[in-house]
Amino acid sequence: MATNIGMMDSAYFVGRSEILSWINSTLQLNLSKVEEACSGAVHCQLMDSVHPGIVPMHKVNFDAKNEYEMIQNYKVLQDVFNKLKITKHIEVNKLTKGRPLDNLEFMQWMKRYCDSVNGGALNYNPLERREACKGGKEASKKCGASQPSAKTSTAAAPKSQSSHNPRRNDLSSVNSANQSVKASKPPPSSVPAYDEQITELKLSVDSLEKERDFYFAKLRDIEILCQSPEIENLTVVAAIKRILYAADDDPSVVAEAQAMVSLQQKEALSPIVETSSEEKMNSDSQKRKCIVNYEVDSTLIAALSPRQRLSEATDVHCSGSPLVTY
Fold it and tell me: What is its main location (predicted)?
């Protein structure tokens, strides 16, 4: 049973026309666009068709027009998912806005799930189940009214043609005038082509918005990380902020950030050089002190008299110094 399906799965390559024909045949509806199911009521009944009795259809509202009414339908759908232990995430905010791409992707997942469920209701009566819903009867009437209207239009065509046969000769001049007016109007076959182009443009806009939101979320995560107190004062973080908060698309901003990082590296190496120079100065001063002390001692010894020198040697002899020989 498919609950989590990857984005590269074949289910997400099913076309809109196939999705619409599947919905209309399963639930006996007459939807012309996938985003018409954005209220969530169609999703609830699709789950009821494969799991009979698990969906409380009396809580489903087919007449939901406002966002809060649609949210109630999606709450019912989420409860059904929880009962069946389905981990599929429902993006309610995007679905209720009626975006074609988001509704198409979720409906593609619904079709894949319903196809994967074995033992569904073979004798499912969608009209009877929809009567318990709010606005379900009206939805069934719309579907039922659209089908007889098509039949009556096709049946009325030959009748009108037969009734107008006696007047053909009288209205020949009027028909010629009407033909000139119809020639100036655009053919009705071009209208579906424009609708398809509009739908494709909406899908491309939705995909671009989704990609924009993805990269914006990544940049926001980087910004939150840079604002943490542990690393906020680092030079690398400051360089990253310099790039994030740049107002214009200026290539010099990257160069400035690199300069900040390189300057910080030079400052980190400079104390080592200073300490080595201080050590050299200290060693040189100690050598100078030793030389000065030696010169002072030699001058003092030269200034002593011969008797003082002899007394000092006697002191050394009395002290038992090994430097004096007997």
Answer: cytoplasm
Residues 6+ apart with CB under 8 A from 62: 39, 41, 130, 133, 134, 135, 136, 138, 139
Tell me which of 141, 162, 177 is where a domain ends. 141
Tokens of 46: 């699709």
SS3 37: helix
How far is 98 from 199, CA to CA, in rounded Å? 12
Any domain includes 254 = yes
Q: Which of 27, 40, 46, 136 lies closest to 84, judged by CA?
A: 46
Q: Please state the pTM of the whole predicted model.
A: 0.47
CA–CA distance, 162 with 209 (Å, rounded to integer): 56
Give the single-character DSSP code of 123. T
Instruction: Look at residue 88 and give its three-state secondary structure.
Output: coil
**Using an 8 Å Cβ cutoff, are 131 and 137 in contact?**
yes
Q: Which domain range does residue 219 map to?
A: 201-267
Each of the 326 residues of the chain gets a pLDDT tens digit; together they read: 555 666 667 777 888 999 999 999 999 899 999 999 999 999 999 999 999 889 999 999 999 999 999 999 999 999 999 999 999 999 999 999 998 999 999 999 999 898 888 655 568 889 989 988 888 777 777 765 555 544 444 444 444 444 444 444 444 444 555 555 444 555 555 677 788 788 888 888 888 888 888 888 888 889 888 888 888 888 888 889 888 878 766 778 888 888 888 887 777 766 544 455 566 677 667 766 666 565 555 666 666 555 555 555 455 444 454 444 44
State the maximum Cα–Cα separation within the chain, in Å, rounded to a whole number.
169
Taking the C-alpha atoms of residue 108 and residue 273, their distance in angstroms, rounded to an integer, is 67
Domain containing residue 117: CATH number: 1.10.418.10
Q: Is residue 155 part of a domain?
A: no
Tokens at 205, concatenated? 């806009």
Number of domains in the chain: 2
Work out the angle at residue 286's Cα, subtended by the Cα atoms of residues 283 and 287, and round it to the nearest 5 degrees. Answer: 90
Helix 41-50 vs helix 67-83: angle between axes, to the nearest 10 degrees? Answer: 20
